[in-house]
Design brief:
The protein has helices at 41-48, 114-117, 120-134, 151-162, 175-184, 197-204, 222-227, 251-255, 265-271, 277-288, 305-313; strands at residues 2-6, 15-19, 29-39, 64-72, 84-88, 97-101, 105-107, 142-145, 167-172, 188-191, 210-215, 229-237, 259-262, 296-301, 320-324. It is of the alpha/beta class. It folds into two domains: 2-119 and 294-324, Quinone Oxidoreductase, Chain A, domain 1; 123-265, 3-Layer(aba) Sandwich (Rossmann fold), CATH 3.40.50.
Length: 325
């Protein structure tokens, strides 16, 4: 099969399209012929070797895909060859064939296109879990979402609205992205290049600040995230695209009963994959019912995976960037 391979940790140029052995599904796994996959920032971090558990090259990156089941492993129940599904990938998804554990396989309703389906296993469940599992959002609360025009951010904006948030504030890096965040359902968008985020959040909330802050950016945003967090608020840290945050003082954190919560979809998939099942089904139901729609901006063939990752890495993308095997 054709697959994109990380040949060494480094810049996008280390990604190469090459022939690779077709993976075989083991017990409890299925294999799909992939029709679409997506680029996630976690793929870029894995390519860089930025995670403590980053795979050793050579390896195929990618977390999610949609396609048709073409082979079942032993013991798989309730799924069949030829079925249209989306998956949490066990083998890298930048490939023509991908393997997944059956707990991470979601049958697709008729009419749901491949690209839309390929965004929800990672992006959709991540955004949903940031708000519910980690953030414990209650109806009427104020939510601040960094990178609100990105893949997870734009999805979190939509899902926060569906889940009953009172005020949704997004941060973005341009006027174009501000417009997109508002179109996705944000009540206000703060251009962090031109405005003081914490000061603007204070103004928008009449001093009450945000009950939940979703921060996948890290070093560049963490200080403003803490300054924007209300007493009893929850700051959910789920990434560090700009690098690790500097250490923080804990006086106001315990004094005002604030929480800093770490969240990783990858961690759940490795250690508690069964926990991801219910959120995946919930997000798929909302997607199929038209309650949210992923913002898909750009599509590349597998051979241009380096260009796709570079677009995301340089923060020039909006919404999801897709790869088509």
């Amino acid at each position: 099969m054709q697959a994109v391979v990380v040949t060494a940790h480094g810049a996008p140029e280390v990604l190469e399209l090459m022939d690779w052995p077709v993976p075989e599904p083991g017990p409890g796994q299925v294999r799909i012929r992939a029709a679409a996959t997506s680029v996630n920032f976690a793929d870029i971090q894995a390519r860089r070797g930025a995670y403590h558990n980053s795979p050793t090259p050579p390896f195929i990156p990618g977390l999610e895909a949609a396609g048709t089941i073409d082979k079942l492993g032993d013991g798989v129940q309730g799924l069949q060859v030829g079925q249209r599904v989306a998956i949490h990938a066990d083998t890298g998804s930048y490939a023509e064939y991908v393997v997944a554990r059956s707990v991470g396989v979601f049958p697709l309703p008729d009419g749901l296109d491949w690209e839309t389906a390929a965004t929800f296993p990672s992006v959709g469940t991540t955004a949903f879990n940031l708000l519910t599992l980690a953030g414990r959002m209650q109806p009427g609360e104020t939510v601040l979402i960094h990178a609100a025009a990105g893949g997870v951010g734009s999805t979190a904006v939509q899902l926060a609205r569906v889940l009953g948030a009172g005020l949704i504030i997004g941060t973005v890096g341009s006027a174009e992205k501000a417009k997109l965040a508002i179109e996705q359902g944000a009540d206000a968008a703060i251009n962090y290049r031109e405005e003081d985020v914490a000061l603007r959040v204070r103004e928008l909330t009449s001093g009450a600040l945000a009950d939940i802050v979703l921060d996948g950016v890290g070093a560049a945003t963490f200080e403003s995230s803490l300054a924007s967090l209300a007493p009893f608020g929850r700051l959910v840290a789920y990434g560090q695209a700009s690098g690790p945050p500097t250490p923080v003082g804990f006086g106001t954190i315990y004094g005002e009963n604030k929480s800093i919560i770490g969240y990783s979809t990858g961690g759940y998939r490795r250690l508690r994959p069964e926990v991801m099942r219910a959120p995946g089904l919930a997000v798929l139901k909302l997607l199929a019912g038209g309650r949210w729609k992923p913002l898909i901006s750009t599509r590349y063939p597998l051979a241009q995976a380096a260009d796709a990752q570079r677009l995301v890495e340089e923060r020039n993308s909006v919404g999801k960037v897709m790869l088509i095997p």
